[in-house]
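Q: Convert this sequence to structure tokens.
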Amino acid sequence: MSNPSPLLTVKQACAYLQICRAHFYSLLKSDPNFPKPIRLGQTVRFKEADFGRYVDLKAAGEGMVGSIGHDLAKKRGRGRPPKAKFNP
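A:
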């Protein structure tokens, strides 16, 4: 019996997308197009083909996957606040 779409662990999915685990979970929570997990008891797996489609979608519509983190940081208002201007 052949497996048409291998199932990936979170670690393997992170390696596939070339992102860290924290960014993976933030995408899972915030991006509605991100592949949905398959729960098998206590384990969580993802279809490899879903990630191929996700990368294609991001490359065609919103830019590369690596740029997604920048968008999330802007939405949350992270980063250094602007310096206050001192006028004597």
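The chain has four helices and three strands.
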